[in-house]
Amino acid sequence: xxxxxxxxxxxxxxxxxxxxxxxxxxxxxxxxxxxxxxxxxxxxxxxxxxxxxxxxxxxxxxxxxxxxxxxxxxxxxxxxxxxxxxxxxxxxxxxxxxxxxxxxxxxxxxxxxxxxxxxxxxxxxxxxxxxxxxxxxxxxxxxxxxxxxxxxxxxxxxxxxxxx
Length: 164
Prior knowledge:
Elements: H1 39-50, E1 57-61, H2 68-81, E2 86-90, E3 99-103, H3 110-126, E4 129-134, H4 142-146, E5 157-160
Parallel strand pairs: 1-4, 1-5, 2-3, 3-4
Helix pairs in contact: 1-2
């Protein structure tokens, strides 16, 4: 799996990315996200993407189907449209870029968890943005509880994606 693929096989989308030659007509954007009860979360993400100072980390959590993957993929698309280097990864930790999104953080093994916190520190030092999502609030993740490298994924902005 390529870390910069927009639709990796392990993340939930509304189409099948494994079909050879399949190119979806629908691409996740911030504008086509159906916010429902996520209006404030969408506003926080838009604000974080527009800001060049302040908090540059965002952790999204929620049930399957709550829109986490859509928002991360849309953020990466938005960053690329603004001329920034941006990478989306699902269940793995990519290299640093101006904007990095890591989806399904609860699936990371021990080595990947250490790599995620190293990436978190690199992003903070360089002024880059790190967007992370998982199925649980950051305080309930094994990553946050057991990693000595954890400055706290929830230390930045975090928000739940309730069902839409």
